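A.,

Following up on our hallway conversation. Structure tokens first:
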């Protein structure tokens, strides 16, 4: 009877650990996507940066 109880407990623990494994991976995947978006947006901003600098400089001189 005690062996049965221990095996049931182990099954319960393994179910909990697999239950929480997927959301953790999902959160990490979201972080990867957000990081890539930030990198892409930053690259776009810096590619337009010289034009922005000229525009701001022109508006400041006037």
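Then the amino acids I'd put at each of the 62 positions:
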């Amino acid at each position: 009877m005690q062996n049965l109880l221990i095996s049931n407990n182990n099954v319960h623990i393994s179910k909990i650990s697999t239950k929480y494994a997927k959301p953790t991976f999902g959160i990490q995947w979201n972080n990867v996507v957000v990081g890539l978006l930030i990198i892409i947006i930053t690259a776009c901003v810096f590619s337009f940066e010289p034009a922005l600098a000229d525009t701001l400089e022109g508006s400041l001189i006037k």
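The two ends are 89 Å apart (CA to CA). Curious whether your intuition agrees with the design.

B.
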